[in-house]
């Protein structure tokens, strides 16, 4: 991150109500004098209909975070910020910025920015999602200009069940998927999707094993929001050595 970035600040975090991962992963990567302030949107199951309904609460959540005089707002939900296809992520960032009165980022757009910063073209994607959400994520990433070599989900709908997964689960899923002979050629980067999937702690080990950059939803969102807020953070992996 930028060595001239401020040593203190406040970050606003808009998360699904059932997300138990984003806040602790953000907190772990930030110095003590950068505080994280959360606002929640109702969501229990990670389905297309539930995510669509949840997005209606996003602007109000960002507006309330603006009352706390935060430096920037992050919408921390991957599928919730790509649900309606190309352009929805940018529109969501604009809506949140207008509501909060500060810069805003949304996870889907943050992932695109992170992959672009890493010069990644061909990627492997691992998710906890059902097949219909994996299909929407593939379509979004391909529309953004990436070749999705593989996308593999766990088929989970209950968000609390996703939140119970561990970094070891993420490591096993990545290594099993990339070890499948059907995948073929190497990839430029690996993306572990979902802000409720505890995977940020797996990044350094996976990068050492795979010798390619590995990003996660929370990692990309944290990297991006710290950049727009002008605050310092120290996340794992090569991404955090790149400028947002």
Automatic annotation (TrEMBL):
Pfam families: Amdase (PF17645). Residues 1-23 are annotated as: Disordered. InterPro entries: Iso_Racemase_Enz_sf (IPR053714), MaiA/AMDase (IPR026286). This is Asp/Glu/hydantoin racemase. The lineage of its organism: Archaea, Methanobacteriati, Methanobacteriota, Stenosarchaea group, Halobacteria.
